[in-house]
Amino acid sequence: MRTLIILLLVSQSIFAQKYFTRTGFTGFKASVDAFEPVQAINKSTSVILTNDGKIAAQLFISAFKFRVSLMQEHFNENFMDSYEYPKATFKGKIDDFDSSNLTNKDVTIKGVLTVKGKEKNITTTGRVSKNGETIRLNSSFSVLAKDFDIKIPSVVRRKIARQINITLNYELIEKK
To answer: Which CATH architecture has domain 17-175?
Structure first.
């Protein structure tokens, strides 16, 4: 009997309603006024969101696209070591998440962001809305380059902000 109860509980979590995307937008800016903008976008972030508000996201660092290709090359080779650390991840939860009541609702998102093998606890706000079977999640937050052991060479140090502003725009569809 105990085995049956455990099996039922596990199967409920496995079959819980989930929303996902493989085309999520993640962008960042690390610009300093009076210099070339340091910013990039990644339109291939994979995200899963469960009915109880658990969220997991993953992106490939090398998928960030810059306006200037040389900047992209330096980003991957000199700053992010994307060959050694190809992915960034976020695992967390949206507080008080209720998938049946998502009409432009402000939410708190808490979790762990992992970049270059370094973990950082993140707490931020976001906005969630639902239209049919689609959930939209938007958020912005800032991190420090030093928190992820991102070393900025002295030759460009004054051209790149130490604080990195990250923007997320995800449109998740119900996984059937």
So the answer is: Beta Barrel (2.40)
